[in-house]
Write a structure and sequence with these properties.
By secondary structure, the chain is α/β, with parallel strands linked by helices. It has helices at about 40-50, 65-75, 120-125, 125-130, 140-155, 170-175, 185-190, 200-205, 245-255, 260-275, 285-295; strands spanning about 5, 10-15, 30-40, 55-60, 80-85, 95-100, 105-110, 135, 160, 180, 210-215, 220-225, 225-230. It has a six-stranded parallel sheet, sandwiched between helices.
């Protein structure tokens, strides 16, 4: 069984479904409201676990109703929570999400996620050393992301850095990441460049290998210096929330099969995820993914 460690955020998503996005100062009647587990760390953990990996999560929640519910859900997915702290002096992270017009807009309040420190990463050293791959994102403090990348590099464990939400990152430790998995806007931000630049040129500027996601178009990556394109899989879109996290979780799970196969399966898993509502609700199982790919080959 593939072993994955995820270092990242755990949130409760507060989701409002509306016919359209409201304008500034406008009050709009919504169609539906629900609370669903989220956070990029938790999402990527669930994505990997549903695809058959043994997953351990490094993170933190508050000692509140949201935190208790989040931990129950993660435990139900079979995720190892030994390195998830429950904090008495902080609330759990939240993400307020509006879904409309086949897209989403999100505001994240980190709360306990801001307490996922380098010390908590170091405390998980033994767990990370046994992993086949490590996933980390930018919804925890930047110094903790750096600590994760550096630790993975020292332990010779592949680290996939998903730079979202995007911010400029130092090339010195960015170069230690095994793979960077941004969209075009995120890649430009990380490199302190221009989002209007050709994405292939941006990929060449990165100090580490890049797997660039481009929504329904699929993904681009480099093999032996040549840019390769994995086309997307056409589906009926219901909710794009969590598609990137599904992509990253799948990429980590299938990385041992080679980058080409991993990117293909990650694109397929992400396509499946947008056909259902909710970040984690649409994440496919390995059986669903296999059936989806088999049907596309028929």
């Amino acid at each position: 069984m593939v072993r994955i460690v995820v270092v990242g955020s755990i949130n409760m998503d507060l989701v409002t479904v509306a016919p359209r996005f409201p304008g500034a100062g406008e009050t709009l009647l919504g169609e539906r409201f629900l609370t669903v587990p989220g956070g990029k760390g938790a999402n990527q953990s669930v994505a990997a676990a549903r695809l058959g990996a043994e997953v351990a999560l490094v993170g933190a929640v508050g000692n509140d109703a949201f935190g208790a519910g989040l931990l129950r859900g993660l435990a139900h997915e079979g995720i190892d929570l030994a390195h998830v702290a429950t904090l008495d002096d902080s609330g759990s992270g939240t993400a307020s999400i509006t879904v409309a017009e086949g897209d989403n807009r999100i505001i994240v309040v980190p709360a306990a996620n801001a307490r996922v420190t380098p010390a908590r990463v170091e405390a998980a050293r033994a767990c990370i050393a046994r992993a086949d791959a490590v996933l980390v994102q930018m919804e925890i403090p930047r110094e903790s992301v750096e600590a994760t990348v550096r630790l993975g590099h020292r332990l010779d464990v592949p680290v996939i850095l998903n730079p979202a939400p995007a911010q400029p990152l130092p090339r010195e430790w960015l170069a230690l990441a095994s793979y960077l998995t941004p969209n075009q806007h995120e890649l430009a931000t990380v490199l302190d460049g221009d989002a209007d630049d050709d994405f292939r040129a941006l990929m060449e500027r990165a100090p580490c290998p890049v797997v660039l996601t481009r929504g329904g178009e699929g993904a681009w990556y480099r093999v032996h210096g040549q840019a390769q394109h994995q086309p997307g899989f056409p589906v009926s879109v219901v909710d794009t929330t969590g598609a990137g996290d599904t992509f990253n979780g799948a990429l980590a799970v299938y990385l041992h099969e080679g980058l080409e196969q991993a990117v293909r399966k990650a694109c397929a898993a992400a396509a499946l995820s947008v056909t259902r509502l909710g970040a984690q609700g649409g994440m496919p199982t390995s059986h669903e993914l296999g059936a989806f790919l088999t049907a596309r080959q028929a």
